[in-house]
Amino acid sequence: MKVEVKVRSYDFDPLGVTHFLSYFRFISEAFEELMEAAVRRKAMPKPGVRLKAVEVFGVSLPITKAECRYLAPTRFGELLEVKPELEELQPSHLTIKYKISRKSNGQLVAEARTRHVAVDKSWRRAEIPGELVEIVENLLEDRAEGET
Amino acid sequence: MKVEVKVRSYDFDPLGVTHFLSYFRFISEAFEELMEAAVRRKAMPKPGVRLKAVEVFGVSLPITKAECRYLAPTRFGELLEVKPELEELQPSHLTIKYKISRKSNGQLVAEARTRHVAVDKSWRRAEIPGELVEIVENLLEDRAEGET
Amino acid sequence: MKVEVKVRSYDFDPLGVTHFLSYFRFISEAFEELMEAAVRRKAMPKPGVRLKAVEVFGVSLPITKAECRYLAPTRFGELLEVKPELEELQPSHLTIKYKISRKSNGQLVAEARTRHVAVDKSWRRAEIPGELVEIVENLLEDRAEGET
Amino acid sequence: MKVEVKVRSYDFDPLGVTHFLSYFRFISEAFEELMEAAVRRKAMPKPGVRLKAVEVFGVSLPITKAECRYLAPTRFGELLEVKPELEELQPSHLTIKYKISRKSNGQLVAEARTRHVAVDKSWRRAEIPGELVEIVENLLEDRAEGET
Fold first, then answer.
1. Residue pLDDT, tens place only, A55-83
2. A9, A32, A50: residue with CB nearest C75
3. C121 touches chain B (CB under 8 A)
4. What value does the mean pLDDT of chain A take?
5. Residue D24 C-alpha, separation from nearest chain C C-alpha, in angstroms
6. What is the ipTM of this complex?
7. Structural domains of chain A, ranges and CATH numbers in brackets
8. Going edge to edge, which strands form the sheet with A79-89?
């Protein structure tokens, strides 16, 4: 799975450099696409209907840690590809690693991570359902699916 | 009432010009300060407690229209003053006008407006309570209060 | 031309309503796509190369006014279509109107406008080149092109 | 040095939880205040004039890594205090740690870090000037200065 994002006019700092904040915007979009694809694969909602992960899998996955290393600058209008990978899996935690590359030449521009804890509808810690893990792993390995 | 805002590093476009979006961020903050001050004046909550307008006045005021005219560029780190005024008042609508000026020399850099409709807890159209209007008018006329 | 945008997790207010700011984000993206398409149609840069409008047409089009009317709420993950139209054209000004609709059923959720002034490389007012107008008009009328 | 920030209406996710992105906004503001205070202490510019760090110290400090751990949720309108500390200092790198706490009761809600590399005007790696380190250390230890 790869998620395409674009450097927008509102992503800049006063020097015309893409702001460090925006890379977290990019991985936020990638994680949203991943969870949306997982929900769709399990529940196949009707067009226009959007189910939440917590409704379909019984858990949601709030972020407990986020980080990003910056490797190369990006430019206005540039298309980037965010490739998420499952880096760590524990009963109630998981860490996703994101490789952010230029679409034009594949150059890695940033590497990020989000760590998530599984919580149930009442925000109590929960186990990550095996079915969710399996679907996520399949989606992440899939080269075609999930591109937007 | 004047609300001080600051042009931040994340407010820029690729040319190093403050993004047109950010002026809506500035007036959003000014409106938040106005409503927070109105709630405080009526309800005097304990420190650390934050009541919503709808809890205190029975209505909230979602935005139905927003606009901004751009008159002069602003720079990174610049302090701006947003001065809200009540421009139009109808039974269930009001329009607030915002003059955005440089703190350093008073130069007007943008002029904006938000139009609001009053809705009750169930998001049905409601009348704006006279008490809320009175408090807002007093706050807006007050030169000292509400500065942050 | 229609530009597809998506309501993201970072687009919300404390009540879970899409923030009024985000609709300006959506039209910013639509205008960026329009200008990028105009540049591509005129200059056909190599892949990975991104020319600025001012380099290709001799003018850039900073925003002098922006406005948005909000008609219906939108939901997390919802796909919206932004359809720009040329509403007003003067020698050195133009106004673009944006109809923002749900992709699922075409319902109009917001209507926005941006007014632009043409400036040259030194930020002096300039005339909008006839060629730019023609390309923009062709792009806006085109039902297929410019979709992302 | 402590920098006060406020959770704004545009800081939320669809569930009404402060978005993980916004904590990077908060530390961005804290770092901006720190650098602005350092520049002021060295150069004492006239009111309304804002010098860049690179003009005053010969280096700027772009971010090479950013991270945040999330410990407790925050609410709309809540005042937070960001307390930066110098965690690591090397000839051309430094790491700043940020403790983000509720102003009302001091509870720690997040802990973040930014790592910076010193570069000169041509974006070549440079040594961090001793004078800049000294000023930053003084500012960070100062309990009063730098509050906004």
1. 899 999 999 999 999 999 999 999 999 99
2. A50
3. no
4. 93
5. 13
6. 0.92
7. 3-141 (3.10.129.10)
8. A3-6, A79-89, A93-102, A108-117, A63-70, D63-70, D108-117, D93-102, D79-89, D3-6
